[in-house]
């Protein structure tokens, strides 16, 4: 029988809080059970195991992230949308390091396909990039460029990896300028329709 008061949502929210406090890698069923004052087995009424918990945490955090991005980009286009998207992404990554780390795990494609938050992420991201006139396969390539740039920058910034005297925000703004130029002058995939 499930412990009174425990729900899947409460367990996932507690996992998100634990991830930010102790690091994503320290989110375990035992740590959560201690937080709730229950035995580990009590959590199995709500999640199937650690992999399920971490997947649910990743989807939860991904939903939070895209909600923040959606608000930031609403009514914007071009460089303005790109800067707003990037700023919301960076702020979330720095404010919620454990949750953000959860968004970087590999999730089964069938789970992603069934997730409203992941569909919304694709819609908003691809919508912003279509403003640059991109279509597939260039859209996928552009998404990979943005994700790797944003993630790399945030990972280095959060670990103190930027040691030069240059202001980190100024460098971030230059990176967004450079991405805007790259997207504006994207080397389009040519089709050979013979």
Can you walk me through this structure?
The model has no long low-confidence stretch (mean pLDDT 94). The protein is an all-alpha fold. It contains 10 helices and no strands. Helix 4 packs parallel to helix 8. The longest helix is centred in the N-terminal third of the chain and has 24 residues.
List keywords for this structure.
0% strand
Strand content: under 5%
Pattern of helices and strands: HHHHHHHHHH
**General shape:** globular
The value of Rg in angstroms is 19 Å
Oligomer: single chain
The number of helical runs is 10
Give a concise summary.
With 194 residues, the chain is mainly α.
Topology diagram in text:
Blueprint: H1 8-22, H2 29-36, H3 40-43, H4 50-73, H5 78-95, H6 97-102, H7 109-113, H8 116-130, H9 138-158, H10 168-184
């Amino acid at each position: 029988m499930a412990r009174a008061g425990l729900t899947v949502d409460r367990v996932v929210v507690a996992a998100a809080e634990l991830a930010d406090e102790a690091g994503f890698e320290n989110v375990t069923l035992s740590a959560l059970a201690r937080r709730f004052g229950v035995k580990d087995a009590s959590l199995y009424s709500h999640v199937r195991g650690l992999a399920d918990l971490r997947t649910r945490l990743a989807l939860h955090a991904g939903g939070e992230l895209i909600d923040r991005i959606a608000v930031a980009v609403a009514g914007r286009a071009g460089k303005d949308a790109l800067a707003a998207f990037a700023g919301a992404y960076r702020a979330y990554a720095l404010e919620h390091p454990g949750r953000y780390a959860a968004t970087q795990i590999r999730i089964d494609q069938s789970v992603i396909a069934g997730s409203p938050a992941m569909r919304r992420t694709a819609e908003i991201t691809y919508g912003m990039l279509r403003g640059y006139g991109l279509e597939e396969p260039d859209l996928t390539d552009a998404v990979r460029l943005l994700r790797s740039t944003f993630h790399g920058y945030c990972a280095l910034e959060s670990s103190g990896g930027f040691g030069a005297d240059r202001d980190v925000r100024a460098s971030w703004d230059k990176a967004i300028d450079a991405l805007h130029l790259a997207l504006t002058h994207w080397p389009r995939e040519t089709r050979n329709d013979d």
